[in-house]
Design goal:
Length: 176
């Protein structure tokens, strides 16, 4: 039987949701035997592949690069999971939404910088006007809240998806 193709994606987040994923500890071995991890910050694949069964997305959509990436991910994924509060409701990245982009960049790259003190026009992807949750730009199939979601909760969700069981009845408040 073919393994389930799974990917994880890191947008505007702190990596805490990926750390929580790794906190499944020895249960990762069970999961690893059932999946093919085809793309992730945890592996070295550069291009997001076609035909992914499940993608877990950490982080809000905050930059033009995030937006481009999540659209490709959506096109190539059957079940898209918003993993953690930044993906679900934009959470911490949305704290900057009350400020103008120019003021944020000025603060980060000039006022509080040492050398060089200039707003970059290369390498750093341009910010969107606001950091937004994933479902605001593409369809999301499943929301997994938490900051970060508890590893036990992630395990239950991933196990249910791999088993083809319904996930709606898994209560988030039972974990952590
Ligand atoms: Fe980090 Fe929390 Fe956002 Fe996850 S939800 S990326 S742990 S701030």
């Amino acid at each position: 039987m073919d393994k389930v193709k799974v990917a994880t994606v890191w947008l505007d987040g702190c990596s805490g949701c990926h750390m929580s994923f790794l906190d499944m500890d020895e249960r990762l071995l069970d999961i690893a035997g059932r999946i093919e991890l085809v793309h992730s910050p945890l592996v070295d694949a550069k291009e997001f592949p076609e035909g992914v069964d499940v993608t877990l997305v950490e982080g809000a959509v905050s930059s033009e690069e995030d937006l481009h990436k999540i659209r490709i991910v959506r096109e190539r994924t059957r079940i898209l999971v918003a993993l953690g509060d930044c993906a679900v409701n934009s959470n911490v990245p949305a704290m900057r939404n009350q400020f103008r982009r120019v003021d944020i960049l000025q603060r980060a790259y000039v006022d509080t910088a040492t050398d060089p003190r200039c707003i970059p026009d290369k390498v750093v992807p341009p910010l969107l006007a606001h950091a937004v949750p994933v479902h605001q730009v593409v369809k999301v199939d499943l929301f997994v809240p938490g900051c970060p979601p508890h590893a036990d909760y992630i395990f239950e969700i991933v196990s249910a998806l791999l088993d083809g069981r319904p996930v709606e009845d898994i209560p988030v408040r039972s974990f952590g």
